[in-house]
Every structure is written in structure tokens, then in C-alpha cells.
Structure prediction request, 258 residues.
Amino acid sequence: MANRVKQLWQEGKAVVNGWLAIPSGFAAEVMSQAGWDSLTVDIQHGVQDYQSMVACFQGMQAKPVTPLVRVPWNEPGIIGKVLDGGAMGVICPMVNTRAAAEAFVSACRYPPTGTRSNGAIRAGIYGEGGDYVKTANSEVLCIPMIETQEALDNLEAILDVPGINGIYVGPSDLGFSLGLEPRLDREEPQVMKIYERLMKETSKRGIAPGLHNATPAYAARMIGMGFRFVTIANDSGLMLRAAQAAVSAVRQGSGGKA
Prediction:
């Protein structure tokens, strides 16, 4: 199964990614209708588990949207399991050193380039020509998160690890690590300098930089800056915003009667 995210990057395009925190195949099915290039099931901070991840993948399958997962941690057991379940890419939190990046890539790859165990119980159904194992190492995306000062200190070493396809910035944890308030859509000059450095170093290596954003406007601006993978909030946040806007519109339009 060809990875559409990888294809878009090769074409020089940015990927617009949705984020699934709600443990519901139906919610994923609805989100898949919105035109996202990819949808990431968040089993780190979302209210998701392995079973709901599989249900989300099944819900989005009718549309040409690439299934991704953010795992809870850099642990080979869960990384292999989400890949067996059908993930076409893994976003891994708190990758702070070259050794951690090497361990992450190894967990995503079959031998001889990695240590992933064979048993793609669901993903194997969708392999090109019916042979998932032959294509998985080239199609599965390894995307470590850069979200701490330690990761920035080791940035070049992390990016030099063979098999890294992209990076993903978590602005909230990055802010925490820098002694700032944890939030998205940052404007601090020191953070903008970090983003510029990320653009420079990833561009040198043909690696796609990614960022989690709160709003569409900021995400579009970050694409202009050079980010090639942008997420806008998550499904629960977008639902809340839309519901709040609807309720507010009714109250304002009713002349104080509601």
C-alpha cells in the first residue's frame, strides 16, 4: 500500500493532518469526509486505546486518507503493534537523543534494517501485491517529536539517523522545556528562531518538518514558513469550537430570548 503522505512530500507539497482524540470509528469516519490528507490517532494524550485505533482506521478506510498514530512512548512493543494494526506512520514523543531516534527507527523496521517482529495481522491485508513485508520498510513513516531543549541540543544527531522521514514539533512541551507557558500557535522570537533552525536542518537532509497548530490561519502561515506537515487542533476541539459558535450565534440572533 503506497503511503500518500510520502508521495505528497516527494511532490513538494504540504500535508494537512487531522488529529483523532475521540475513541470512535464513527467520529473517524466523519472526519475522513473533511478532506484531510492524513488522520492521526492519538493514543498518547487522546482518549484512545488500541481497539479504538483499529476502529478509527476502519472508519476512515473508505476515503484516501493516510492512517497515522502517535504512540504513548518510545517503546518497541506498542510501536510494532500499531503498525501491525494498520498505521502507515508513527509519531513518537520525547525523542531527545540519537540513541532514542535509532531505537525508534529500529522498532519501525523489519530486519535487516530494524528489529520489528513479523505479524502484521491487519496491515498485511493491504500490502502491495499482497506482500506487506516487502514494502513496509519503505512505506512506513518514522516521525520523532522534537519537543524539548535536550532534543534541540541533539538535533543534528537525531536528524542524521537513517530512516527518519519527518519530525513533529509539540509546541506545548517545547514551551515547557524552555520555561514558557505550554500552548500552541507560539509567537515568541526565541521559538520562531527554533522553527527557522528546524527548517534549515530538515531541508538539508530531505526531512519533512511538522507542527501541531491550534488554528487554520496559523497552520497556513507555518506552511508558508516551510513546515510540510501541519495539524489543526483535534476532533474534540474542532467539535467544541463549532458547537460554541452555533450556540453563540443562536443566543446573539435571538435578541436576548435564549
